[in-house]
Amino acid sequence: MNxxxxxxxxxxxxxxxxxxxxxxxxxxxVARGETFALIGPNGAGKTTVFNAVCGLVRRASGSIDIDGxxxxxxxxxxxxxxxxxxxxxxxxxxxxxxxxxxxxxLGLGTAGGRSLGETDAILAATDQLAALGLAADAARPVAxxxxxxxxxxxxxxxxxxxxxxxLLDEPAGGLGSDDITDLAAIVRGIAAAGCSVxxxxxxxxxxxxxxxxxxxxxxxxxxxxxxxxEVQADPRVEEAYLGVEPAA
Length: 248
Ligand SMILES: Nc1ncnc2c1ncn2[C@@H]1O[C@H](COP(=O)(O)OP(=O)(O)OP(=O)(O)O)[C@@H](O)[C@H]1O
Hints:
Layout: E1 8-17, E2 20-30, E3 35-39, H1 46-53, E4 61-66, E5 69-70, H2 75-80, E6 83-85, H3 98-108, E7 110-111, E8 114-115, H4 118-131, H5 147-159, E9 165-169, H6 177-192, E10 196-200, H7 204-210, E11 213-218, E12 221-226, H8 228-232, H9 235-242
Parallel strand pairs: 3-10, 3-11, 6-9, 9-10
Antiparallel strand pairs: 1-2, 1-4, 4-5, 7-8, 11-12
The chain binds adenosine-5'-triphosphate (ATP).
Domain ABC transporter: 8-244
GO molecular function: ATP binding; ATP hydrolysis activity
Pfam families: ABC_tran (PF00005), BCA_ABC_TP_C (PF12399)
């Protein structure tokens, strides 16, 4: 039987910054419609994986394929290949309204693989804001919104291009428990619609309740992988987070 082509395949990825090996021979696949988490202590290399997928850092070796074809070399070309990303910080344009922020990627490229005229772009952005409960905020300066709403604007901006692979960098960071519960429901809906989600997150309850599979990085290496239950039971993970030596 043929194995389906993964949405994202990372093979033997190594990235170095001068003398620091930030990623060392990292490999994993993300299937279509899968929610996949990358976890690990601070500095483990999680964001560098995202940056490598987006063509923002140079690979020393390894390959990155999206839907069976090499990832494009530039971030702009990624949108046309169905990839979107949120940033660890919000990365919003504070001088713009909510709607203008969500329109930015539509001005750069395509939605669902096709270019949109201005009217259709505004409709798509307005629909996306409505889907995330932000319809009433469209004309407000984004800087005037509370932090959880600004996080959702950043998510709307990533979703407006109708990605097939969504990279979420610490989406729960800075949110309270009610907002995290809402976010988990939103991410489940995104995955249920067939979009693969690769999430970097420190909030463990969120990760464990959401992810189909998890890879754990430490000092740039994969130290564990599997289902949430498998990863939680792995003594190497406890060691990486807590500095506890696994029992012999
Ligand atoms: N552009 C860069 N130049 C030099 N070193 C970098 C650069 N980007 C990342 N690093 C280093 O690479 C390592 C991995 O960083 P990265 O940001 O990927 O970790 P992370 O797992 O995302 O950490 P955190 O959870 O704190 O965000 C760290 O030691 C970091 O200091």
